[in-house]
Amino acid sequence: MKWRNRGKLPAVIITIALLLFLLFPFFVMISTMLKSSTEVYSSPPTWIPERLHLSNFITVWSEFELYVFFRSSIIIAVGATVFNTILTVPAAYAVARLRFVGRKFILYLFLVIQMFSPVIVIISLFKIMVGLNLLDTYFSLIIANSVFTIAFTIWMMNGYFKSIPVEIEEAALIDGCSRVQTITRIMIPIAVPGLVTAMIYTFIYAWNEFLFGLTFIQSRPKMPLVLALYNFVGRWSTQWELLATAAFLAIIPVLVLFYVIERRLVAGLAGGAVKE
Amino acid sequence: MADASISLKQKLWNPEARLAYLLLLPAVVVLLTFMFYPIVYVFLMAFYKTNKLSQMVAFVGLQNFISEMAEPEFWEITGRSMLWTVLAVVTKTLFGMTIALILNVKYTGRKIARMLFIIPWASAVPISSMLWRWVYHPVYGLLNHTLKVTGLWATPPTWLGYPIPAFTACIWVDIWIGIPFMALVFLAGMQAISEDLYESASLDGVNWWQKFFFITLPGIRHIVLIATLLSCLWTFNDFNTIYILTMGGPAGATDILITRIYQNAFKWLRFDRAAVMAFVTFLILTGLSIIYSRVYFKEERS
User: Fold this and answer.
1) Which of A80, B6, B125, B166 is the residue whose CA sits 20 to 30 A from B245?
2) Which residue, B258, B106, B100, is CA-closest to B179?
3) Cα–chain-centroid distance for residue A24?
4) Are A220 and A206 in contact (CB under 8 A)?
């Protein structure tokens, strides 16, 4: 342990320096949201607000009606999570537990398509949404977000189901449970941590998603938060103190959720090389 | 012969396999409709002349590809996409390695430091990009102010206004978002290396650099490979950062394939050109993706 002790102080100093450097934009965000408009647009700018100005929160909530976009984002993210889970759980169980021809291939395919870029298919998806009359609906985003998360969530759930000892399931089958009952009464309850991870992952993905919203949504009240903020930059590019406030409020929920799944997410992405 | 055909039928159509197909069906149907069909459709589109309503007007064979390849701009954008990916991934790896090495030192408060280092990854990418736009603001932005006041750079550029500063500004945001993932994965790998190795090396009087090159690096080799491959995919795919910061501008100086596809389609309504670029992008991404999957599977088995 000696060599570690010797290295401690420099490590602390480098940590602080790097954190100051890397978290600068968030420092700017917090500083800006606490400033008045006049102070934001004074040159030279100030690092720390001269006087704390909390009314930006009230302005974004009541005048900019941020709650409308919060509601949209919640509907879309929850919808995508539910839809994704309904599709993922049975599929993941099948690849984890059942023997059938092409199992390996399907698993491999899911891993490859996990990386598909939404931009490649955005033209066709747009046309499909037009064809299904889903343009400018929450449902278009619910579908798109769950489709582009499904490969990864199946992979994650596959890992969780596989880690449950087969004996538990066999015992249940011998005791007269049907396959479906073993899934709903035994496998899913045991795999809850994995299920929660997959669900949070989908929720965050949908919450942060920008491209689909930009392409499918036109009417203002249906915009998810991220898109509303983007249009906010375009329309009132002079009100950065309000944007910083809205950004702060929009980030907090996903930040909290991200900490819940962060370790399992890293393990899922890096595969067998990383243990949780 | 008869035996073989029976066993084949049984292999494909026994109760267990039937249940598996049934359980997979909903997911497969959704993926076929909203992922595979769209890809096939875009591929088809690449061989057609399209109108402004994105309808395929006439089959032109390879003509779209030929005319696209003849454009110097196409090669410029493809080259820039490569440069973008390589530069960003290398920088992310270096930063990630540094942070992982630091967090692997057992000092008090490193758990908090770890949580703070994650923030740029945990935060929503589009929102972070908007915040960076404000940070880069030439007059009221705190970046240039800080550079000036601290004397680090007396005359910093108008970041998003000129080609090279804009490219630098965009790629930095992409790097900044990607660093935490690298750091976390590397750290997880380092923590899996046995302490004993380091201790016995210490007894032999091995210095820090030697430990790094002969114990740490070989120990995390596979993890570094997987993480950089994954990072290549994400970086090549990074639409949000560029679109939100510069929309590919000024004068196309920050456009990469992924942003140009979108602009070709939804800004200039040149759907055939977008389809050709999507085709090329798809090939590159699938290649990378297959390599990643192979490495991933190899790790799973071992």
Assistant:
1) A80
2) B100
3) 23
4) no
